[in-house]
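Appendix B, example 12.
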Amino acid sequence: MRKYRASLRSRKSKTNTYAGHLVDEELTANITHISPRGLVEITFSREIFTVPNLTMITNGTIIVDEDEGIVERVLRIEVLPGVASDIQYLDFEWEAVNQTSLKLFIQMTFDDPVYISAFTDPDILKITVIDVLMFSALDGHQIEPDHRVM
């Protein structure tokens, strides 16, 4: 697997509350490394609580619209194709494989890894935090709703 372009995009906001918890732009996440084998390292700006079982991240879901019955996974992970990439070759599965208080490791497995960022314009890995309660800092702060790591 070739390299992705990785950068952080986050809305600027003041400290406020979400679901009764402090939400602060100081708690952010960055993609700090992507290995050639698809292991993604995400680093948090503050220590967070770790989950007792990583399947809570991999298979966990949250109701995002009770009236409409819309349920999403805890993390939304997408590969945005570069200009020359063909989206049909970018299918993948992912699994949370390790977590510490400052890092989350996600293993991505692509159907056709040879096509990932195969051209000069790289594909972009986009990770959106859907369930902010899953990623809470030890000091009570949480990541912003819809926080995106690219």
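The chain has one domain: 8-149. The CA atoms of residues 52 and 123 lie 33 Å apart.
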